[in-house]
């Protein structure tokens, strides 16, 4: 790892951290020279073919010229990822990295899993896009298999291309079905970046200055930073107050993530969802479970809402549904689904034969390889290891999450819970040099988002924790 110099931008580095890095050459050189540590890297028998494409600098130059200026990269020196296999990624030089982010909780089965890739190749060779106006078995087979994974009367599937599209459709259906316009969502939640979902999203950094109406944001039931601690029923009373004083007393619906992903892997306070569910139903609203990040076995349950003993009226999903293919879905009851027959509803690429083939393959891999059980087992093991690490490093304020959807929040002061935003970026860079990739999130950008492929092993978990420990020790 290169030493910081005066020419480097300090935009994302605190003054104190910057000075520490400048004052100690050995401190920043330690990771680069840690051959003994790197020898602990779990073995893997795949070697990617040589890469002959453009360099990272060339790609970055093209991105700056031709792609949206809103696009950003992780790390001070962006990675050029050119290959992937299961829980590992490879850069242009062939260096291997342990992927603990999975393309933002997407690649649940593992990168380029052969049992996903091969059916897709066969489908794309035979027929790529027939349109749902014709009959084709791919969309029918997947919708049947997907509906079988949901409880009760949740058996009508609408396919989309993303989580944003799925949530947009769910919000519209709730409003049509109830005849009400008011939606309640939770502060710090993220549901998408289109008109309706941006209104439901409750973080200013994701909300543009456009009209967003009809959404009320409830107090976040965050056990770590929330005003009522871990008292779920007190947070639920705020939902009751919002409905009682901010609406007609009747609402269209309530949308919520079982674990907030973009918001920093925030678990809901115990008892919150079941109490809120009763309040929402009494107000005539529908309960919408946003499973875009927590679904498809990631939390150790197949769906995140299963840990809260509630059955939603509508479930939205994306990300892990296709293991990287553009695919999303809304699943609801036949009664609620019928509202879309009042007019014409159509999605050109929703239910595309190639994407639904991938979706069906994902379900088969999760079952065949017992990935749900692995997520629960390895996730519990990793969480315990991270909790132990918290006892060693004061910078760790909280460890949370379920299964392989875990968060580690960093603070400079445990009592004040001061976000360690700059330190988070620095430790991420150090971990990258040790071959470990994690994401970050939370309103302050101070939470490690650990959402690896569900084939993650205990050896992988051990190495991740050791890399984090090593990186924090070099602060």
Automatic annotation (TrEMBL):
<dbReference type="InterPro" id="IPR005814">
    <property type="entry name" value="Aminotrans_3"/>
</dbReference>
<dbReference type="InterPro" id="IPR015421">
    <property type="entry name" value="PyrdxlP-dep_Trfase_major"/>
</dbReference>
<keyword id="KW-0601">Photorespiration</keyword>
<dbReference type="GO" id="GO:0005739">
    <property type="term" value="C:mitochondrion"/>
</dbReference>
<keyword id="KW-0663">Pyridoxal phosphate</keyword>
<dbReference type="GO" id="GO:0008453">
    <property type="term" value="F:alanine-glyoxylate transaminase activity"/>
</dbReference>
<dbReference type="Pfam" id="PF00202">
    <property type="entry name" value="Aminotran_3"/>
</dbReference>
<dbReference type="InterPro" id="IPR015424">
    <property type="entry name" value="PyrdxlP-dep_Trfase"/>
</dbReference>
<protein>
    <recommendedName>
        <fullName>alanine--glyoxylate transaminase</fullName>
        <ecNumber>2.6.1.44</ecNumber>
    </recommendedName>
</protein>
<dbReference type="GO" id="GO:0009853">
    <property type="term" value="P:photorespiration"/>
</dbReference>
<comment type="similarity">
    <text>Belongs to the class-III pyridoxal-phosphate-dependent aminotransferase family.</text>
</comment>
<dbReference type="InterPro" id="IPR015422">
    <property type="entry name" value="PyrdxlP-dep_Trfase_small"/>
</dbReference>
<dbReference type="GO" id="GO:0030170">
    <property type="term" value="F:pyridoxal phosphate binding"/>
</dbReference>
<dbReference type="InterPro" id="IPR049704">
    <property type="entry name" value="Aminotrans_3_PPA_site"/>
</dbReference>
